[in-house]
Amino acid sequence: MPHERFFAERYVLREPLSPHRAAELDGIEIDPAVLDLPRGPEDRWLIVEGAGGVLVPITRDILQAALFSRWRAPAIVVARTALGTINHTLLTLEALKHRGIAILGVIFVGDAMPDTERTISDIGGVKRLGRMPISRDLNAAHLREAFTAHFDSCDFEAAYGA
Fold first, then answer.
1. Residue 83 CA: distances (Å) to CA of 29, 110, 111, 121
2. Closest CA to 93 of 74, 114, 113
3. Euclidean distance between CA atoms 88 and 91, whole angstroms
4. DSSP label at 42?
5. Looking at residue 162, what is its pLDDT?
6. Which of 121-127's residues contact partners 24+ apart within 8 Å by CB, and which partners?
7. Who contacts 77 (Cβ-Cβ below 8 Å, separation ≥6)?
8. CA-based, 20 to 30 A from 134: which of 9, 111, 117, 141?
9. What does each of the 162 residues of the chain score in pLDDT, given as a tens digit?
10. Distances from the Cα of 39 to the Cαs of 1, 30, 36, 42, 92, in angstroms?
11. Widest pairwise Cα distance in the chain
12. Domain limits of the chain?
């Protein structure tokens, strides 16, 4: 994928911790006001990966969910298919809905767990977008192949009126 299709990070933190704590350790003050979605002539598709979960603190005063709410972009929840995922995923969906954040659906990652996936979709009232198997070979070609095999692009295009 061309490098120009990626945006530089606003902040780069050294420790693999919640952003609020990693920034404190690095002596950096995160300014949530500058954390906006990049805009450009061809910004129809933009993927923003959150840091660990919707209720992770960005600073000691603001949660990641507040940024998602401000951006008014639909969210895709990514959930592993391991033990505990029903609870974690339903809590995440509740937090997003409580803040009025549109949810495009859930992507599952891991071994197929049909009942877990159906339970989350049914109780959470969201679409199951597909499931990605665990892979150690994460590159553009592999991801494109997996997306084609496990997802319907119409589910994603619908969110943008394509």
1. 36, 11, 11, 16
2. 74
3. 5
4. T
5. 52
6. 123/90, 124/89, 124/90, 124/93, 125/93, 126/77, 126/93, 127/155
7. 89, 92, 93, 96, 103, 105, 106, 107, 126
8. 9
9. 555 667 788 899 999 999 999 999 999 999 999 998 877 656 566 778 888 899 999 999 999 999 999 998 889 999 999 999 999 999 999 999 999 999 999 999 999 999 999 999 999 999 999 999 888 877 888 888 888 888 888 887 766 655
10. 19, 21, 9, 8, 27
11. 46
12. 1-73, 74-162
Output the six-digit token pair for 82: 């391991």
Q: Which CATH class is domain 74-162?
A: alpha beta
Residue with token string 């033990």: 83
Nearest to 67 by CA among 126, 10, 147, 119: 10
Structure tokens at 52: 């660990």
- Token reading at 94: 């509740």
